[in-house]
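Minutes, structural biology subgroup

Action item carried over from last meeting: produce the structure token record for Flagellar motor switch protein FliM (Fictibacillus barbaricus). EB confirmed the sequence was re-checked against the source entry. Recorded below for completeness.
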Amino acid sequence: MVDVLSQNEIDALLSALSTGEMDAEELKKEESENKVKVYDFKRALRFSKEQIRSLTRLHENFARLLTTYFSAQLRTYVQIGVASVDQLPYEEFIRSVPKMTLLNVFEAQPFEGRILMEVNPNIAYAMLDRVMGGSGAGMNKIENLTEIETKIMSQLFENTLDSFKEAWTSVIELDPFMVDLEVNPQFLQMVSPNETVVVISLNTTIGETSGMINICLPHVVIEPIIPKLSVHHWMQNKKKTRVPGETEFIEQKLKNALLPVKVELGSSEMSIEEFLHLSIGDCLELDQGIKQPLIIKVENTPKFYGQPGKVKKKLAVQIIETIKEDEDQW
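Output recorded by EB:
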């Protein structure tokens, strides 16, 4: 993206050129030189900016779903949002993970491979403390969890997979399930060290405790659906595919819907004093002429003209004309 100069910067540049502090020829020479961009082959960028944006949108939705889920489970203030989305080698990611942390390993069919959710120890202990009836105090270290603690944390994060599934529904139908719960990243080797992964960092606040939840998506795992992460693909899939028989079903339901139909014999106006003196046997003069057609209303909207009559000893009205939409006399 080209940097846009502010007015102060433009004024300073013009002032420097006019006083001779800068040479215009040197500026032109610098612009004509080839700009070289350093590329690190060990840190291959295998996701385009568009795909990164799509993953960001997906996990912003996931963060909102997690906020709702943890708020209900922990019964305290919870705020989760996407802090960053980066692509880097798996080895670099695993080195950045604390030596003792909470690592939720899960699979999501039809993806082939494993996905990792790393939870900062401060956040993990705050959740554990809250679930067990405490105030939700965090603790920035983690030791080997007891069997009871492992069971509680496994169940708590296993239920987050429903939110993960829902967040990805717009791209693919997933069936995620928990595989393992680890606390030491040294025992975890999901993909080769040089494999590119996308790390979605979620800034998490639980009560007065804050920390990060990192989701690691290896490129080799989500590679089959990467083309679906483009905006072009999403726009194409926005066209709704009709279910066989859907049109006929809707049409039949509409045909059976009931509509109120009213026929007005006429109307009249009177003063409040006249209204207060009305009694049984009084006759009201309508503003409707005997030879004028009646107004037939559907849902209080004038639709037809009609004339009154009888059918099998019952009052009836015969439609004689359709009221055009541009008629404004009613």
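Discussion: Residues 259-322 form a domain with the Surface presentation of antigens (SPOA) fold (CATH 2.30.330.10).
Next step: EB to file the record with the rest of the batch.
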